[in-house]
Every structure is written in C-alpha cells, then in structure tokens.
Amino acid sequence: MTLVWVIYDIVKNKTRSKVVKICKDAGLYRVQKSVFLGDINSNSRDSVILEIESIIDPEADSVYIFPMDKATFEGITLLGQAFDKKYVSDEIITRFF
Fold this sequence. Notes:
Blueprint: E1 2-9, H1 13-25, E2 29-32, E3 35-40, H2 42-55, E4 62-68, H3 70-74, H4 90-96
Antiparallel strand pairs: 1-3, 1-4, 2-3
Helix pairs in contact: 1-2
C-alpha cells in the first residue's frame, strides 16, 4: 500500500464528478473539494491513473497523483483550516493530529 494524493483542476462538472467517483471507488478519502488522499496498492493506483486519463481533457484539465512515503507524509506542515472535516474520515484526521 502506498499513500497517494490526487489533486485536480477539471473544467467540466460531468468529468469532475466522474473523477470523484473513480477516487471514491478506489478507496480514497476526499479531504478538500478537489483533493483526495488514501492508501492504495500499485494496481489500484495504475487503474485510477488509466481511468482518469481516459476521461479528462488534457488540453483543459490537470490531475496530479502523488505517491508519498510515510516519512514524507509525517513532514507535512498544515496551515490554516487544513482539511474540510465534512469530507475527511477519522482515519485521515488521526494521521495528521
């Protein structure tokens, strides 16, 4: 399992909704409107990449998928309100606090 961030800026609502579904189906947690986080294996990560790649417009949309190791994750600095708690599970919150 690898901790993965998915961060996107997608123009069309329909495409954005499909990306949200792909992320949720992969077991990722929404931490902000356009940010998902969670542990997934390499096969699931590859599947997420392929699925998202097949639906976005590469001329208008951007999607970042960042794998992150535990040491790097623990070095994250959060400023301001951090996560939107209505989106985040207790599992993700306990990783940060």
